[in-house]
Each structure stands twice: as C-alpha cells, then as structure tokens.
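Need a sequence for this fold. Nothing fancy.
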C-alpha cells in the first residue's frame, strides 16, 4: 500500500485578524464561520450568505473559505478547490492556499499541492503546519528526503507535533531506516496516545520486522480508538483512519496465515465509503487480497510436520473455544519470487513467435540467481488467472517480487490489460473481463514492505494503425491502444512505494517482436538481469542502450520507479 493515512492539521491562522474574524462571524453568521459546525449546515449557511450578494472583497473571500472548509469535511475536494480558488481571487491568504493545497493533496495532485504550499509560505511568516503539509506532498511524490526536511522544520516550530513525528517516521521507514522510523512514531504515540494514526503506521514497521503479533495488536488498538472517537480534525479525509487501520491489520493477519480474520478485515475495509486517493488505493489492495485469501486453502501450521513426515503419536484432543487459524511457515528473510509469462500462440489475433522463448530465457536467468520462479507459456485465460493469483498469494511473504510478461497488451479506458492466448477481442462491455487486469496485479502487490519489479514486453500504442502496420512485427492488438504509462492504480492512487515498472518501449511507440529467437528487449534483459552486483536501475539502463542500438533507435525502453533505495537482483 503505496500511501498511509495522514491527518492534516487545519491552519490556525484564518483570513484577517482576530477582531476581523469576530466581526465576520457577527456579520456573516456563526453557522458558516465556526469550525465545529457540521459540514452540511456549514455549506448551507455559507451558500445562503453568498446568495445574498451583499458582501464583497475580503468578507466574501471569508465566506468562500469557510464553505470550502465545509466541503472539505464532506470529502468533496473538487468543490473545496473551486471555492478556495474563488477566495484566492478575492483575497489571497496563507489559510486559503493551505486549504486548497491540502485538497489537491487528498486528490493525489501532489505537484499542484506543493505549489500552493509554496505560495502560502510566501504570503506570511514560516508556518510549521504548512511545512508539515508540504512534507506530506513530497512524501506523496516519494521524495522522502525533501519530506523529512519539511517535517524537521515543522517539528522545530512545534516540538509537540505528533503528526510531524509520525510522518517523518513514515518517510524514514520508506528509506529503509526502520529503527529511526520506530523512534519517531513511538514519540508521536507518547505525545498523543489517543491518536490511532501512529499506531496504524507502526503496524507496517512491525510487519517489515516480521513481528506480526505486535502489528496486529497495534492495528487492533488503532481501530478501537478510531471507532471510539472518530478523528475530529476537519482536514482528515472522512473514514480514512478506519480504512487504513483495517487494511493494515488485514495484511498482518494474512501474513500470519489467519485468513479468516484477514477476510473479515478486508471486508470491513471495502464496506466503508472512501473519499481520498489514499483510501481508494487501500481499498484497491483490499479488494485484490480479499479475493486471494477467499480462494486460498488453509495454510500449513507453523509447527505442523512436513507432508512427507508421519506423526509419531496421536494428536491431542481438540480444545474447546475459538482458536486462531493456523499460520504458514514463516518466510525466510530475503525470499525472492518471480512470475514469468510468455504468450504467443494466439488463436484469434496475430500470433507472436517469440514470447515463449522470451519467457524461458528470463525465467532461466532469474533461477540462476536464486529466484523461485513460476513460469507459464501460451496460457489461456483460466490458466493465466490461476497462475497470477497463486503468485500474488505466495508473494505476500516474499521480500522481492518480479513480474515479467511478454505478449499482447492493450489499454482500455485508462486501465492496462494482458492478453491470454484464447481471447477473442470484440467491442462490448464484457471485453475486459476476458483479459488480465495489470492494475489489479499492481494493487495486489502494493503493501509497503516488499520491493516489486514489474517488466512488460508488450506494445505501448495501437501498432496496427495504418502508419505502423507495415513497419515490422510487433506486439499489439488491432483496434485497441497498447499499455499506458501506469500513473495510477484505479481511482487516483499513484504508483506504490517500493515499486519499479518497466516497459519494452516508450509511450506512444511499439515493442518489436524481433527477427531472431527473442525480442530485442528480452534478449538484452536476459543477458543483463543476472549480472552480479548490478543495481536494477543501472541494469535497465544497459538494457535500454542495447535495445536502442539493436533497433537503430526504433525502440526505446521506458521505466518509472518509486524504489526507495538500491535494489540488486543478483546479489553481491
């Protein structure tokens, strides 16, 4: 789960001076301009005042500001932005820029949010709250160094800022400093033991450290606190604390092998209405994981004998009372797994000769460097779906997961799909149901404690269009767009932290199948992927240079990374 829940503090400074605020409340009405007014009443009161058309300039800007606050309470960020923009036009202020920036943050528009926070800082004295909020946006962009610098400024301004300690800890965790992260989040808990958010964040640290019982305990306490007293801060997206709490506890239950409780928590996550980008990303992960654990066989208990060993004594009588589901054997730290699929023998669209060869070559290279590989060639939809789901389920206990796919791929309505060999693509609402959703694979791997490397040797545009149809054999489908740049997972969530995704070619171009036994991309990849001591992004740079040279600049591989440090597939 590439985003944790963040509770943003409302900027305490508002439009005008304290006396001006008191005057505004007397003139404009307390229901509109009081922070504790319920959202619907606040929006309604402010709307009625605007309709009177008796206020102008700074006073009218104040009304738009407070109506934007009301929309923010409701999680309607588009309307927050509209009203805040009007307030800025009438009378710019730190408060309004901060509010609008926070709304852009909750929508996942981090660059615009940062610009608004920059403008807020220019309009007044340094504000620890604005530094905190800008740190959140840097963190959303996975620029953890800049995020930590802003949280440092926030903590300097307010050493009792629990959320700044919490979010600095999240950033340290993202950079691999688990002990530093734990120290910061522990400090946040000491500063305010009633907050559920730091406990939720600590669950992922315990999971990364392999202490699943502590992760579950923290998740349970966070849920209890959030249900007992929902966060009152108006900058906290509605329901986001509970969604995050249930998702994190479910991941811990699943990692422990307690699938029954994991299912219950995933269902609870999905039953809650989400408004912000982070919550929607959590729900995307929960939906995939729920499906996987619902299908899963009961895992082998930690202390159970191996399937080939017969017990030497009769089992003890079963104890009465509820018992936890058995847990799987703990994964060895450093477990590395790969899913490799090559589809070429298509029945209803253009066949491709090389993907099976490509898959075999890449699979061999990964096995040679110690990966556990699930390999499939020319898979129909049922086989491809089963292999993918089995891999996602097993990868829950891996530390590094690699996915490689060679074959046809398309993009439909902004989502990416991989094509099984038996699919007959015809226009209609059911077309995507016959394919494998790449975004679902990404969501299923997005849980913050694993490094994910996803590599797709598939077409990136509509290569069957007339202008390119005669250029060369390529990996595309007539009448459909190829795989799109993965800037989102579902509704507004960005590429998950700890993930690198690479395509055989750049956006708007085609991936060639090649004249030899392998595609140009897979030939280069299988040569370099096993190079000892070569960091993965350096490896892809070598692959890119070789493909560009081999294809005479016709194909330029492309990648996007949110990796949090150096990753070596072939360890030193």
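Here you go.
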């Amino acid at each position: 789960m590439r985003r944790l829940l963040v509770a943003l503090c409302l900027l305490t400074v508002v439009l005008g001076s304290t006396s001006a605020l008191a005057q505004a409340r007397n003139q404009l009405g307390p229901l509109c301009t009081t922070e504790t007014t319920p959202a619907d009443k606040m929006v309604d009161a402010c709307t009625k005042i605007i309709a009177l058309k008796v206020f102008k300039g700074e006073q009218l800007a104040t009304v738009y500001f407070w109506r934007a606050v009301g929309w923010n309470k409701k999680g309607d960020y588009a309307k927050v932005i509209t009203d805040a923009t009007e307030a800025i036009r009438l009378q710019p202020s730190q408060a309004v820029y901060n509010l609008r920036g926070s709304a852009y943050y909750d929508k996942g528009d981090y660059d615009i949010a940062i610009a608004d926070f920059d403008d807020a800082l220019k309009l007044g004295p340094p504000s620890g709250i604005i530094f905190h909020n800008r740190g959140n946006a840097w963190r959303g962009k996975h620029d953890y160094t800049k995020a930590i610098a802003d949280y440092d400024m926030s903590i300097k301004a307010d050493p009792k800022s629990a959320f700044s300690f919490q979010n600095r800890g999240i950033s340290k965790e993202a950079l691999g400093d688990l002990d530093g992260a734990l120290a910061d989040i522990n400090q946040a808990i000491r500063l305010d033991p009633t907050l559920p958010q730091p406990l939720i964040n600590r669950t992922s640290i315990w999971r990364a450290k392999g202490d699943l019982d502590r992760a579950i305990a923290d998740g349970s306490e966070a849920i209890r606190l959030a249900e007992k007293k929902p966060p009152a801060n108006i900058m906290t997206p509605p329901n986001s604390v509970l969604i995050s709490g249930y998702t994190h506890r479910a991941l811990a239950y699943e990692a422990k092998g307690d699938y029954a409780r994991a299912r219950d928590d995933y269902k609870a996550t999905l039953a809650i209405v989400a408004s912000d980008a982070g919550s929607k990303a959590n729900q995307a992960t929960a939906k995939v994981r729920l499906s996987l654990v619902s299908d899963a066989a009961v895992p082998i208990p930690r202390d159970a004998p191996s399937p080939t060993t017969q017990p030497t004594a009769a089992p003890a009588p079963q104890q009465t009372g509820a018992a936890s589901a058995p847990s799987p054997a703990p994964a060895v730290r450093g477990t590395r797994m790969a899913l490799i699929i090559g589809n070429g023998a298509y029945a209803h669209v253009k066949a491709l000769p090389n993907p099976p060869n490509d898959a075999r070559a890449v699979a061999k290279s990964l096995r040679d460097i110690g990966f556990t590989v699930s390999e499939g060639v020319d898979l129909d939809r049922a086989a491809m779906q089963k292999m993918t789901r089995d891999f996602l389920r097993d990868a829950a206990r891996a530390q590094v997961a690699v996915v490689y796919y060679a074959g046809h791929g398309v993009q439909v309505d902004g989502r990416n799909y991989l094509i099984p060999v038996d699919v007959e693509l015809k226009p209609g609402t059911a077309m995507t149901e016959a394919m494998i959703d790449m975004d679902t694979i990404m969501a299923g791997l997005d849980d913050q404690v694993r490094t994910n490397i996803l590599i797709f040797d598939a077409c990136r545009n509509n290569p069957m269009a007339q202008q390119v149809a005669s250029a060369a054999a390529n990996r595309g489908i007539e009448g459909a767009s190829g795989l799109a740049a993965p800037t989102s997972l579902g509704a507004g969530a960005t590429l998950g932290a700890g993930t690198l995704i690479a395509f055989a070619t750049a956006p708007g171009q085609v991936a060639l199948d090649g004249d030899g036994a392998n595609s140009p991309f897979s030939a280069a990849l299988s040569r370099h992927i096993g190079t000892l001591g070569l960091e993965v992004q350096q490896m892809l740079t070598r692959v890119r240079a070789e493909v560009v040279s081999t294809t005479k600049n016709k194909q330029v591989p492309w990648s996007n990374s949110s990796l949090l440090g150096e990753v070596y597939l072939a360890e030193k």
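For context: The radius of gyration is 26 Å.
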